[in-house]
Amino acid sequence: MPNRIQAAFRAAAEAGVGFWAACNRLRLPGTANPFVVGVHEPMRAELTLENLPVTGAIPPGLDGLYLKMGANPVRAATRGHDWFLGDGMVHGLAIEAGKALWYRNRWIGSRTAAAALKRPAAPGPRRGGNDTVNTNVVAIGGRIFAVVEAGSFPVELAWDLEAQRYNPFDGTLTGSFTGHPHRDPRTGETHAIAYDGRVWDSVRHVVVAPTGQVVRDVAIPVAHGPCIHDCAFTARFVIVLDLPVTFSFRALLAGYRFPFRWNPRHGARVGLLPRQGDGADILWCEVDPCFVFHIANAYEDADGRVILDVIAYATVFTAIGAGSTSRAASNAGRSIPRRGVSRDGCSIPRRRSSPASMSGASGNATATSTR
């Protein structure tokens, strides 16, 4: 009974906050959002183009399916819109024997997109009220999945993109997932660090087996609800980026749909979680305040230090109303190669032989997938 009472109280509170945010959203500027105009203007139709002309020659052996995923709002963007939001659209280009067989683009059949398109939503179980999936396309367990962070279950796609179904990895995923999972080419496992905008005191290390089912889901204690867009791993550790972009109740109440902002009270640290460890086993290494969207590589050097190759921004999302346009211009694109997180107390001697390098992106199928 207490759980039911708590759930009812939370639902009522969230409804109240949602109503307040919707009212304040009407006060936001109605100017065109820069991420839905010009080169960013959404596509307005689903296309099927076959036997595409090829300029030059496609290299022999380059056969498969090139996939791209992104936000492509069906309806016009409303006040409070953000670059990261909007109905998902997947694009596919099939290549075989030097020929470009077809191109297709298809909206992900969320309830919102389907209603706007006046057609049935994609089948399959939902998680919560927001079933938009718009971030990435990955190959897991020999299947193609569209994924998003901090929200909906993944969507399984047919190879020709003509069918789709919400699929929490055959019922084994119980919480949110990530937009950037990474496959270990040695074990075939896919690793993810998942956060949830409604859960502020923990994130999760999720491992999906080569067969496509979740075999590990471990909570990691954090504070303030950090936004963790990417992760990486080495031979011994999974890398957790706990950086100063966190959930902002103020931004949410103001009507902004992406409620994460720079939080100077939240320290910057990088966690080294043993790949089979619990949340209590994580080793936190403090770093200078910054934000990292993506990790290019992670590895352990000969002394046991963990090295990350990243692009770091000094600050992002600093203004309540600026959203994803508020990256620090002085640091935009500044590459920080081979940045070590092994400060005092964070150097871990190597206890067994292991590869000198293992890429966090190695084997990741964010751009391509084979049939």
From TrEMBL:
What EC identifiers does the entry list?
1.13.11.-
Binding positions for Fe cation?
H180, H229, H294
Any single Pfam family the record assigns to this protein? RPE65
Stretch list, region Disordered: 327-371
Q: Name one GO biological process term.
A: carotene catabolic process
Polar residues: which segments have biased composition?
354-371
State the family it belongs to.
Belongs to the carotenoid oxygenase family.
Q: What is this protein called?
A: Dioxygenase
Native organism is Methylobacterium phyllostachyos
